[in-house]
Amino acid sequence: MWGKGLITGLAITMRNLLRGPITLKYPFEKADLPERARWAVTPTYDEAGAPKCTACMACIRACPDNILELEVTTREDKSKHIEHYTYEIGACMMCGLCVEACPFDAIEMGHDYELAVYGADELTVDLLADVDAAPVKRAKPADKPAPAEKSAGIDSEKSAPAEKEATDD
Ligand code: SF4
Ligand code: SF4
Question: Considering the domain boundaries, does residue 95 fall inside one?
Answer without folding.
Answer: yes
